[in-house]
Design goal:
242 residues, alpha+beta, 8-stranded antiparallel β-sheet, 3-stranded antiparallel β-sheet, 4 helices, elongated
Amino acid sequence: MPGLLLLAPRETTEFETLRGPVRLRKYGGTPGHEFVRAAVRAGNGRGRAALVTLRPAAYPYAGAWLAALAEHAPATTDYRNPDMAPASVRVVAKMTRNHANGVPRQSDGSVGWSVPGASARVWPDGRLTVISAAGVELSARLEGSQWDTWAVAAVVDAALRLLCAPEARHVTRTSEPGGWSRAADRWEDWAGGPVGVKSGWMYDGSSVAACSCGWRVTVPSRLGARGAAAAHLREVGAAAPC
């Protein structure tokens, strides 16, 4: 963000977002120890939804980072921790290679993952940190139980997209087909209402191909989904799918 380097200690500035202005204030006057702190408001403008600390290396990304936090901030906030689990955030996040269950946790309850050029970590109390391979850090403390799994994943995705290597901005994945299931799981509408069909087994081989950029398509087979993901990466000029 232009101007943060020029701020004097205790001097403030404002950055305008779709949810209103965010006020930033610089602390520390010793070179190498200065930082800027910003409070992102909830949608109603009356409570703090996120507390952000920015070091000098992160100043160029400050505007986009604050805008992403403001965009996904809840309408209201309280003084409790977010209503999410770090493992769930990792599964929901788009910027990650592997969406399998059974995510390993650290002893402090945090969960981390990485994409080429950047890594993320989320804690149960709402802290999150994204660090690039060059050491640039975007971090925040999300405040309020209204922050849910999807909103937390969205802001982590935004930070990873800002700091990752160019080839990682399109991280593709394909879903596991449903496979065989009893037809009784399927319901059809008859004259008297929905009726369960119990005539045998059915096979669902369809698979979803998705990308961290938001592209998504459903095809009849997983092989076809992998082919669609590869074609998408060729179209955007990215590397081979993960």
